[in-house]
Amino acid sequence: MPNDYSDNDIQVLEGLEAVRKRPGMYIGSTSEKGLHHLVWEIVDNAVDEALAGYCDDIEVVIHKDNSISVKDDGRGMPVGINAKTGLSTIETIFTILHAGGKFGGGGYKVSGGLHGVGASVVNALSSWLEVRVYREGEVHYQRFENGGHPVEPMHVTEKCAKERTGTTVTFKADPTIFKETTVYNYDTLANRLRELAFLNKGLRIILIDEREEEKKDTFCYNGGIIEYVAMLNKNKQALHDDIIYVEGNENGISIEVALQYNDSYNSSLYSFTNNINTYEGGTHEDGVKFALTKIINNYAKNNKILKDNDDSLTGDDCREGLAMIISCKHPDPQFEGQTKTKLGNSEVRKIANDIFSEGFERFLMENPSVAKLIIEKCMTASRARIAAKKAREMTRRKGDLDVTNFYGKLADCKSKDASISEIFLVEGDSAGGSAIKGRDSMTQAILPLRGKILNVEKARLDRALSNEEIRTIITAFGTGIGEEFNLDKLRYHKIIIMTDADVDGSHIRVLLLTLFYRFFKPIVEAGHIYAAQPPLFVIKHGKTIKYVLTEEEKNEYIQSLSPNTKYDVARMKGLGEMDAEELNETTMDINKRVLRQITVDDAIAADEIFSKLMGEEVEPRREFISTNAPYAKNLDI
Ligand code: TSJ
């Protein structure tokens, strides 16, 4: 086949070229996240085939060279010619931007959000891509190279069993586009594929990693989101055995809710629309939350648990210790918000409210003993909230929460401009002392942490507020807490956790992150939290001193020295043993240091880690930190 086949369709390739010029516009970024986005893009198409009822099995394979195969056992993509383009449907879908809805064999559905930008985008950003469609006893094949150029038209390459149907797409991300990395992270893929399996009950998704011997997971949940809630509560003490499940359908919009209370003080509530995590919530979530509060209050009043003169239970009271998954399926979802993860369709609010109210109320009626446990839990939460309010008012009156009152601890910076101000939370007094000496006092504030940080996973706000370290942190941040929280009042736009790179350091880091995650979530979400990365090794040669973060970097640097160079390598001391100059040089100087931004990208997996790390038993914790250190690293913990 002549290689100039593709030159015929200049217009098509201009479209794909636009994607290559500004990939961020189509997949968000070309970072590791964008790389994984390519997989979601292709997998979504297979999931759509499953949603249409034609596919039970999806297999994702990470090959040795970090190419990816996604295989489904659906009907196989249509193999005819597209009337509008004169090209095969396959070539149309893979080379024309936004070909989704228009060119499929009717009802070709995409999911929305960043997902569903189209297979053509993946093709444009790949070094090569191959499609195989198994249909009516034949394998239809087409290969594209170098950012989506067809090598030849789609054609039949071989015969296959008549029963064998489905679609397989294999692609290799283009390293000239994904400059940071083209290496896939198994856990990132596994977490999302597990989520998809939870959200689509009965669908089996297999993940295979050919880069490693025998690395494989199969995700299939016949209980769907009921099993999802079970997983959320796996490391917690459930308040009642049964997971409550409500589902309903109105005007083609379906709502599914599963929930179970646990004895913790936090809620783990996650909502989805068409399999997309609606991190920012929206009308489906509002409707269900509203209904939950209303039904619990009604029940408490009707059963005289809540007296006529009592204040109503608030939404927060009703969600304390709640693990809940809300899944909405909508034929035409409108995604809003900063990250397009907020469902905007206004009709969904009432539908979600109606469906959940009815089902949840019926459950409470039919299960009075469980109802009693839930109501009691909410009543206790309400009393604690009122006590916390009093405690807060008292601390405020005493002046404890006034910045002027803890100069002893906080070495504040001179600048009052939050956008350039930083606060270092430093483990231990001696490192704290060096940090104060080594800082740029204009923009860098230092808060040495002496005592243990209270584990907020096991404490309510009122108790947290009685902890001195936590009060100091709250005061320093300036945002207030709970109902009074205000992100605009944050006094430092960089909050930098500075701990040693050992087990104790990571323990303190997790305690701090738990505190931030539970009490200051918007600060985490806004990307204000960072971890300092003190170097692990120092290499000296001649007059040069080079600090490096990892073993690999160390080896790489030594390799790069000219052969006869004499050098000296030493493992770095802990933060506490560094003097002011060293600490500044290695960890604080804004021109030299390396910071890692903490994101709660995968809130659900993080939540699991938090509760595992912070849960009941103390012993497994240390073991968990050491065995899951790489995993925790992925989560930026
Ligand atoms: F988009 C894609 F090419 F990347 C892709 C599509 C990737 C993968 C892994 C699977 C798929 C895909 C598409 N699997 N199944 C389908 N189904 C169809 O495209 C299809 C098949 C039959 C009919 C029909 O009406 O007969 C309609 C459609 C949309």
Shape: flat
Largest sheet: 9 strands, mixed
Summing up helix and strand content along with how strands pair, one would put the structural category as alpha+beta
Bound molecules: ligand TSJ
* Helix content, binned percent: 25-40%
Radius of gyration: 28 Å
**Mean pLDDT across all amino acids:** 86
What amount of the residues lies in strands?
Answer: 15-25%
Gap from first CA to last CA = 52 Å
Tell me the number of helical segments per DSSP (H or I, 4 or more residues long).
Answer: 22
- Low-pLDDT ranges: 1-8, 100-116, 397-408, 616-637
Instruction: Count the beta strands.
Output: 24
Considering the chains and any ligands shown, give keywords for the structure:
637 residues, alpha+beta, nine-stranded mixed beta sheet, five-stranded mixed beta sheet, 22 helices, 24 strands, disordered N terminus, disordered C terminus, binds ligand TSJ
